[in-house]
Amino acid sequence: MCPRPALPLRFEYIILGLIRRQPAHGYELLQDWNQPNHIGMIWQVKSGLLYAALDKLNQLGFLEASLVSGQAAPLKKEYHITPAGEQVFLEWMGTPVAAVRDFRQDFLSRLFFAPDVDPGLMADLISRQKSICQGWVNSLESQCKNSAGFEQQVLIFRIHQARSILEWLEEPYYIDHHTKEK
Questions:
Q1: What are 135-174's pLDDT values in tens digits?
Q2: Residue 33 to residues 40, 57, 58: CA-CA distances in angstroms?
Q3: Residue 125 neighbours by CB under 8 Å, 6+ apart
Q4: CB contact set of 103 (below 8 Å; sequence gap of 6+)
Q5: Which pLDDT band holds residue 175 (cuts at 50, 70, 90)?
Q6: Eight-class DSSP state of 118
Q7: For residue range 80-114, what is the model confidence (pLDDT) as tens digits?
């Protein structure tokens, strides 16, 4: 069996962000996750994966757990974000997405938490993400010139994806809504 990765994966950042908003136990997180217009629109989670990730984040020192009593229930672990977890979460929030294939889940996850962080951080992220997207377009167009057949069709598809992402990031509503001061 492979050991767990030393650093959190994308999924774990979402858990940090939710617990950063409000300490919770696993069941509360699962219920919150699946509310309408919530993170469940882009990330699906099963209880086993959620509880394993909570344990992992606790072991890494990004979360700490305390036992709290529930209504007519046994003691439950309530998770709180640690200063190390806060730092890792904010670093992730400020890091652009590196690959077109990851944009939908990774960037939209950051967008979900945008109201929780400094608008300047989001403005900088958007600016850097646009630059990276333009790099994707340029690289893919260059590759496409030297391709043919199926490879060329895949590259053309990817070019359209990257252009679409760039166009979406340029939307005035998007920029104004997610970079204004609170």
A1: 999 999 999 999 999 999 999 999 999 999 999 998 866 5
A2: 6, 17, 19
A3: 93, 94, 95, 96, 110
A4: 97, 165
A5: low
A6: -
A7: 999 999 999 999 999 999 999 999 899 999 999 99
Residues 10-35: tens digit of each pLDDT:
789 999 999 999 999 998 999 888 88
Phi-psi category of residue 24: left, alpha or beta, with phi > 0 → left and psi -120 to 50 → alpha: beta
Short-list 54, 59, 62, CA closest to 26: 54
Radius of gyration for the chain, computed over Cα atoms and rounded to the nearest angstrom = 19
Q: Take residue 146 and report the two structure tokens written for it.
A: 């030297």
Q: Is the pTM of this model over 0.90?
A: no
Which burial class, exposed, middle or buried, applies to 99 when counting CB atoms under 10 A from its CB (0-12, 13-18, 19+)?
exposed
CB-CB contact of 90 with 117 (8 Å)? yes
pLDDT single digits (tens) 59-68: 999 999 998 8
- Per-residue three-class SS string for 69-117: EECCEEEEEEEEECHHHHHHHHHHHCCCCCCHHHHHHHHHHHHHHHHHC
- Tokens coding 62: 């990004």
CA 61 vs CA 6, 35, 49, 81: distances in Å: 11, 28, 18, 9
For residue 141, give Cα distances in angstroms to 146, 155, 175.
9, 8, 26
